[in-house]
Amino acid sequence: MLYQAYQFHDDLIAPLRDLARRLQIFSATALWGSGSEMGRHFAAALEMISRFEITHQRPDFAIDSVMIGNRVVPVTVETVLDMPFGALLHFATDTDAKRPRVLVVAPLSGHFATLLRGTVQTLLRDHDVYITDWANARDVPLSAGRFGMDDYVDYIMHFLEEIGPGAHILAVCQPCVQALAAVAVMSEERHPATPRTMTLMAGPIDPRESPTKVNELAVSKSLAWFENSLITGVPWRYRGGGRRVYPGFLQLVAFMSMNMQRHQDAHRKLYDHLAKGETAEAGKIKKFYDEYFAVLDLTEEFYIETIERVFQKAELATGDLTHHGRKVDPGQIRNTALLTVEGGRDDICALGQTSAAHDLCRALRPHLKRHHLQANVGHYGVFSGRRWEGEIYPVVRNMILAME
């Protein structure tokens, strides 16, 4: 009944949000909305109420153009491959120049792939970029079947096959495990679409290293607790009605609880900016939370298997990970150059968890391995923001360029 309770609450306050939006329009022409201090505070309060909402639809990537060389080039988002639980998107650019093809593997952890908008926008300067666009499980009908960790690895391999030989892969956060598994399987099979480089950014290759609150929670409870406390059925009003999922709204609450004071402070600042008419400053905060409050649901099997196999048993690090019953051996990776990136202030995936991939990829020669520690960033700073653009991205670009 967890999802039903959430839906009932959301339906209950929806009229209040709608009323606030209507009053915003009315107050713009009313006397109290004419620019007085009381009017600005009233309008700010209305906007805060209207924004009290979690959305379940992927926002637009809103990447219309990119600077390539010395000219602005239009960008068009194309669906290359559409599968039930995810699509392969291509950011097509109007340029004849040959550019390295990069598959960005987005996390399946409660947010949409648009969370990596900044990552993609930066990569587009020098690369032909593709991304995994994972579906919201509540919108996938039961007839589509299950989607677990092995299926996730299958999707990555299907996407690489679609892109073709000679591509590169870059995984952010949670899918670093599945990306490494996919490259290991493809390497062992000598698959022609095995990527030339593999960049793993802030991912739990070995979560036993410097455990964070996320890691500690995963191992402190039994699988039965996760199944009974966090898994629920999708309401029948949606296409995936009846599917058992880990709801995105629960993941959002979990993420926010780790830094609740920071989120409270951000919303106080938002109210103050709105009340003062500081639209540019307010816009920056609204843009972030429009993305942050857009959530998707995970299938029960993917979430539970991730808890058990990635965090509780650390199967990849211990050598026990299998793919459809077949052992995954990163030691089979011989020609795919490896770059790992960690943030020195990362409180989700701490130091050592991602760099553990170097020991696992034991057959790689030293010149095909590189680790980059960005000492002054947290988790999100590894793949977005000023440090990503100015200091981390050049390392990623140079690794890819060296293997072209």
Automatic annotation (TrEMBL):
InterPro entries referenced in this protein's UniProt entry, alphabetically: AB_hydrolase_fold, PHA/PHB_synthase, PHB_depo_C, PHB_depoly_PhaZ
Pfam families per the UniProt record, alphabetical: PHB_depo_C
Signal peptide segment: none
Domain PHB de-polymerase C-terminal, residue spans: 202-401
Full protein name: Polyhydroxyalkanoate depolymerase
Lineage of source species: Bacteria, Pseudomonadati, Pseudomonadota, Alphaproteobacteria, Hyphomicrobiales
Domain of life per record: Bacteria
Organism of origin: Rhizobium ruizarguesonis
